[in-house]
Amino acid sequence: MNSDYPKTVVIALGGNxxxxxxxxxxxxxQFANTRRSLVGVLNLIEEGAQVILTHGxxxxxxxxxxxxxxxxxxxxxxxxxxxxxxxxxxxxxxLFGFHIAIPLFSFAYLKWRRRSWLTAAVFAVAAxxxxxxxxxxxxxxxxxRGIIFGAH
Length: 152
What we know:
mainly alpha, 2 domains, two-stranded parallel sheet, 5 helices, flat
């Protein structure tokens, strides 16, 4: 490992960290800024640094836990399912957009929690209808469509 880097690097990406001061901060700009930021993160990893990514204000909690060694194997084990859902949801949003990700993950999560097929399907359709009505119709803010369906 390069001696210029510490063993562990904690990086906060999110909120103000992915919005430039001259931008309005829409989702397209945030995705582009995140992609640009990840180039530097990959460089750190290639240099041998262990990287912890966190979102904006959560950095201090992450640092406190690392310093105090309060993270146990059980804590990590309990976080894995939640982190897996968040990672999967984020990937589906990136690829297919919110209008696919919201009902898909609503349905999948409810089935994972052993709800009936009908309950999961009704909730997924309701979640899609609600998000579409609020953002696309009421607020007139189209949700991110994903790279597969033409987001830029």
